[in-house]
Design goal:
- This protein is of the alpha/beta class.
- Helices cover about 35% and strands about 20% of the residues.
- The chain contains ten helices and twelve strands.
- An eight-stranded mixed β-sheet has the order 5-6-2-7-1-8-9-12, with helices on both faces.
- A hairpin with a 6-residue loop joins strand 10 and strand 11.
- Helix 1 crosses helix 10 and helix 3 runs parallel beside helix 4.
- The longest helix has 18 residues.
- It is globular.
- The two termini are about 15 Å apart.
- About 40% of the residues are buried.
């Protein structure tokens, strides 16, 4: 069902027909979580995939919508890049991973994933909207949306046309207290969507000899930034080759600390949206 509280035009809406939030009659999705970043290259897609897998492990029905049209990496992260989505008279049928996660991405609809998407913003935004309205998501407890980086046209379309329950922000330490993240957070707040919390990627490195966490950037300003913006730090992830190689080697290579971080993250998400 459409949630009018998530629509930026809700105060000026005069009828149901004027509402910008789109409905999908072939789906029943309880919670929609957008995963967002102020800019690219901070691990947003990896975090999206890992959150989806963690919620799936907890026994929930999960789907993931790859809204990063120009950089669709979700199929590789979830090991379905060799498959293609299909369609019937009712809509697009998502690809399902071995673990049961439903996935829709532009790379699952094109012949060659290496070909660039040379489309203007309105066309890209329209495709993302169709990934919500025209896909047979069915019954889902959680739909994770891997959003495009930044605060541009496509991100705005996602927030205006899809009934998002909350947003998770992904950042790296040197950007967390900068205007890049502040802009993204303020955009979400203006759209009347709650920010569930922040995931700090590349937060530290583990010493290979003693195992001590080495923080390249000071965390004092980070804590102050979170307090000022009333935000929760959902988790800290290290800079390590295991996370970087998830698309090739799978998440089974992750050490226990990282697995525990995602486990705790999943519990926080479930508790917040229960």
């Amino acid at each position: 069902m459409a949630d009018c509280n998530n629509c930026s035009s809700k105060d000026n809406c005069t009828s149901k027909d004027a509402c910008m939030i789109k409905d999908n009659p072939n789906s029943n999705v309880k919670n929609i979580i957008g995963v967002m970043s102020g800019k690219g290259g901070v691990g947003k897609s990896t975090v999206s995939a890992m959150i989806a897998e963690e919620l799936n492990r907890k026994g929930f029905k999960v789907g993931i919508l790859d809204a990063d049209i120009t950089g669709p990496s979700i199929p590789r992260l979830l090991k379905v890049s060799d498959r293609k989505a299909t369609a019937n008279e009712f809509g697009i049928i998502p690809v399902t991973t071995e673990d049961g996660i439903k996935v829709v991405s532009l790379n699952l609809l094109t012949e060659d994933e290496n070909q660039p998407v040379i489309w203007r913003g309105p066309i890209i935004a329209g495709v993302v909207e169709q990934f919500w309205t025209d896909v047979l998501w069915g019954e889902l407890d959680y739909l994770i949306i891997d959003m495009p980086p930044g605060t541009g046209d496509v991100a705005l379309t996602v927030m205006q046309s899809i009934p998002i329950s909350s947003i998770i922000m992904v950042s790296v330490p040197q950007d967390l207290v900068s205007m890049i993240v502040a802009k993204a957070i303020n955009m979400v707040k203006k759209m009347n969507i709650p920010v569930l919390g922040i995931v700090e990627n590349m937060s530290y490195i583990n010493c290979p000899d003693c195992g001590k966490k080495i923080r390249i950037f000071e965390s004092e300003n980070t804590l102050e930034f979170l307090k000022e913006n009333d935000l929760e730090l959902l988790g800290e992830l290290p800079m390590c080759k295991d996370i970087a190689n998830i698309s090739q080697d799978g998440n089974q290579i992750l050490d226990e600390d990282i697995k525990e971080t995602f486990k705790n993250m999943g519990e926080k998400i479930v508790d917040a949206l229960d």
